[in-house]
Design a protein that fits this description.
Length: 83
Amino acid sequence: MLRIYFDTNDGTPDGRYGLWVKGSLDDIAPIADQLRDGMRVIIYMTGELEMEAVLEFDKQWNAWTAWPVPGTTNYYDEDSGTP
């Protein structure tokens, strides 16, 4: 499954995470031609957490967004930095 960085502080009013921050754009650049609406990916915050999400391109934001999939959040172990 493709992995894309996200930040929990960047989102839309309806509960999606915005994938427009630098880390997200860096991850998206080499895989942009593979992304599709409805595609499942892993979104992650380095050293903090990761979860499955469903992609949706938002024309208003002109950016990819991610709907979190309930029950898929894994918090990283503080000492090891892994889920």
